[in-house]
User: Fold this.
Amino acid sequence: MDILVCVKQVPGSSDVEVDPVTGVLKREGFSTKLNPYDLYSIEMAMSLREKYGGTVRAITMGPPQAKQALLETVWMGADGGVLLTDRAFGGADCLATSYALSQAVHKMSSYDLILCGKQTTDGDTAQVGSELSEELGIPNIGNAISIKLEREGFITVTQNLDDRIVTAEIPLPCLVCVDGDINSPRLPSYKRSKQVPQNAFTSLTLKDIEDQDKTHYGLLGSRTNVERIFPPEKNADRKTLTGTSSELATQISDILKTGKFIG
Assistant:
């Protein structure tokens, strides 16, 4: 089974800045990490390869430093990855992102399954996976907590729909969005980090894909406009209380009453 895993590099903390002109996050010069939900999809891909054979490749879109996210997938066991990077892709909304990713997938060799994390921690839209499947013309299913290959050409997926557990059979190729309850991701291998082959990664830019119309990508290709985006406010105010248990209880009660949290 040949598997593609879509991953994303996200801010490593809430300490981020927003471009005042474009309204998008500044992704250069800040700490980053691999999107936590993508760890589950990578682990699922590894488990499927161990059971059924095949390959696991990661794909991401972002600035050149997003290659670090691909490196982490290889340290976990992926065979390689593709970095889709070009200034034309910058500032993309979910629709423009999924279209750009679909163009990159068309450039790659055949695949049986595409795995995505449930959502990303910077956008939380949970839309790119389903939109990517639409662009590729393949079926998709979300909230997966189990994936099995029980019949040739089909996978059996168990979904957690909050109020019920559903099992469905889907033809390959297809796209599956993985929930966070599906597994416990393995740790990156230090040994693999020292043995990454030079040809493990491929970079694609706008000139490398079929549709090179800039109006289909990035801010120009986005169908949604962000009116305002801002980092979370930080409140560093603090007050230290001292005294006996009875005195502390009284002080806390007075603070809550002053803030009108209690009557």
Summary: The domain at 2-221 is CATH 3.40.50.620 (Rossmann fold). The longest helix spans residues 36-52. The helical segments are 36-52, 67-76, 94-107, 128-136, 190-193, 218-221, 245-258. The radius of gyration is 22 Å.
